[in-house]
From TrEMBL:
It comes from the Bacteria. Keywords: Membrane, Transmembrane, Transmembrane helix. This is DoxX family protein. It comes from Brevibacillus borstelensis AK1. The chain crosses the membrane at residues 7-27, 47-64, 71-89, 95-112.
Length: 127
């Protein structure tokens, strides 16, 4: 099981790191290395594209380096949901990648679920 978690973490980290760098190529007017979604690039213009791609790079590195993995997964969760829903409803050309990202994200959130128990307390009090 640990090997499966490691492989999923590394794959998700590579996907997000690659997508982040690919997005920065688009931002700087260079041709992307990997296929991109023209509707997504049109939708995410300006600071929002820079913000999302920076988050993907930083959290992708966190996953690859095994550094702040639970935090990276929490930060990437809304990104993964948006990737899936965007490709499901607006641009189905990259839907398989969106499904892969979503499944890996869900699996890793489940694998690291013990790290989130303190976040799911119905009432919390400061110490």
């Amino acid at each position: 099981m640990r090997t499966t978690i490691l492989l999923c973490r590394l794959l998700l980290g590579l996907i997000f790191l690659g997508a982040g760098f690919n997005g920065y190529l688009v931002i700087f007017g260079q041709p992307p290395i990997f296929p991109t979604s023209p509707p997504a690039m049109e939708f995410l213009q300006g600071y929002l594209l820079v913000l999302v791609k920076t988050v993907e790079i930083v959290c992708g590195l966190g996953l690859l380096l095994n550094f702040f993995v639970p935090l990276s997964l929490v930060i990437l969760a809304p990104v993964a949901v948006n990737i899936l829903t965007f490709h499901l409803f607006a641009d189905p050309s990259l839907l398989p990648l969106g499904i892969i990202v979503f499944v890996l994200q869900c699996f890793l959130l489940w694998a690291y679920r013990d790290h989130y128990k303190s976040l799911l307390q119905p009432k919390a009090f400061p110490k």
